[in-house]
Design a protein that fits this description.
- The complex is a heterodimer of chains A (201) and B (201).
- Chain A has one domain.
- Chain A has 8 helices and no strands.
- In chain A, helix 3 runs parallel beside helix 5.
- Chain A is an all-alpha fold and 201 residues long.
- The longest helix of chain A is centred in the last third of the chain and has 26 residues.
- Chain B contains 8 helices and no strands.
- With 201 residues, chain B is an all-alpha fold.
- Chain B is elongated and about 90 Å long.
- Chain B has one domain.
- Classes of the chains: A mainly alpha (201), B mainly alpha (201).
- At the A-B interface, helix 4 and helix 7 of A face helix 1, helix 3 and helix 8 of B.
Chain lengths: 201, 201
């Protein structure tokens, strides 16, 4: 059946009339918040350089025992956030990748040798490296995502990686566990050397 | 088609178009969920980390300080939130939202340090925090018809959050469990630092 000219005109008019219907303005509706949180959560986990360094912090804390076992995971996120803030503000931090690789080498070596420096020195070393890791997270925020949820995500992921390290480090109470932790430390230091080689390659 | 019929159709179409051009209220900043303003208030808190996390942080802090502080914060915080909300709704303009990062920093830092706050100081902190966040919420809903119900829902949600979290923290006695609370505080403070970075960016 061939549609008459009048029918087509009526159809088009009706269609345009519907298109003119005024919708409620939903300005500033939050979108993509879950994506932002997940991006932040994935960022420290997606890079092996971050993962090994965070686990090394937990392992070393477990080897050192109280109070380091909780001072290091409490201090690290706050110092890391300072590094993140520097990254957000665009403050230049030369040698970021070198600092991240060095963190894996030195923290891995500390676990391998079961070093027992004074608490302030251990916290200072961990805090120093936290700045580089935080800077990397802060400066690599994907465009258009919610900053707060991204930040919460990567702080939580970092804390959970410390928790994984501490949980593994609980085997330190057994002699075989102490040997296993030293081997794990050596593996982390080797991984750090590989990351350092990649920086300069 | 007669001339009179065409004229009548044109007039009907013009009236229909005029009706469709009537303005609809902009629903900026208020993600309504369709269950009424009380539920909007409840869900606003649950879906807004910038309000929810300070409420959780204050509940953690009060829980650390014991049942006496928690009982007072349980009532003071929602009442102050409600008072701030009404003040903001009638006189306020939505300014100073960037300052919420200081709530994160202050409360997170106090929890991480396990600060021995006195009961009056905890109450004062709850009153200030509740009023400030309530004011921001209230000024954001300036002109919203059911704003009072929205704020009531918000205050009820704050009450429930504080009751649940503080009642969970108060009975904690094991050392590691208390450390977990402090670690949560360090995460909140770290998020606050990063929020500051976003605000300054």
């Amino acid at each position: 059946m061939k549609a008459s000219k009048e029918t087509i005109t009526r159809f088009v008019t009706t269609l345009f009339t519907f298109l003119l219907y005024a919708q409620a303005v939903q300005a500033h509706v939050h979108k993509g918040e879950a994506v932002s949180f997940l991006s932040g959560l994935k960022h420290p986990i997606s890079g092996l350089d971050h993962v090994v360094a965070m686990i090394a912090v937990g392992l070393w804390g477990a080897q050192l025992g109280a109070p380091a076992i909780w001072v290091l995971p409490v201090a690290f996120p706050m110092v890391m956030a300072m590094g993140g803030m520097l990254g957000l503000l665009g403050v230049p931090l030369p040698g970021m990748e070198i600092g991240i690789a060095a963190s894996a080498i030195l923290l891995g070596a500390a676990v391998m040798m079961e070093l027992r420096p004074p608490l302030a020195l251990a916290a200072g070393l961990v805090g120093f490296f936290a700045i580089f890791h935080g800077y990397a997270h802060g400066s690599e925020l994907p465009a258009g995502e919610n900053g707060l949820l991204y930040s919460i995500g990567f702080v939580m992921a970092t804390g959970c990686l410390h928790g994984v390290g501490i949980s593994i480090g609980l085997v330190h109470r057994w002699s075989w566990g102490q040997r296993a932790l030293r081997i794990a430390g050596a593996a982390i230091a080797l991984a750090g050397m590989f990351f350092m080689w990649k920086v300069f390659a | 088609m007669t001339c009179a019929l065409r004229h009548r159709r044109s007039v009907t179409l013009a009236i229909a178009l005029l009706c469709l051009l009537l303005p609809v209220r902009a629903e900026a900043h208020l993600p309504t969920i369709g269950l009424g303003p009380v539920y909007d208030g409840i869900f606003h808190l649950l879906l807004s980390p910038e309000d929810l996390i300070p409420a959780i942080a204050l509940a953690l802090l009060a829980g650390q300080r014991g049942a006496g502080s928690s009982r007072r914060v349980l009532w003071i915080l929602p009442i102050a939130w409600l008072a701030g909300g009404f003040t903001g709704m009638f006189v306020g303009t939505p300014r100073g939202s960037a300052v919420t990062c200081f709530s994160f920093l202050l409360l997170g830092g106090l929890i991480a340090a396990n600060a021995k706050l006195s009961v009056p100081l905890t109450i004062a902190l709850a009153a200030m925090l509740g009023f400030f966040h309530g004011y921001l919420n209230g000024s954001g809903i300036n002109g919203f018809n059911d704003g009072a119900y929205f704020l009531l829902g918000l205050a009820l949600a704050v009450f429930v959050v504080v009751a649940l979290i503080s009642s969970f923290v108060i009975p904690l006695r094991r050392h590691w469990a208390l450390i977990v609370v402090r670690v949560a505080g360090s995460w909140i403070a770290a998020s606050g630092l990063l929020m500051l970075g976003w605000a300054l960016r």
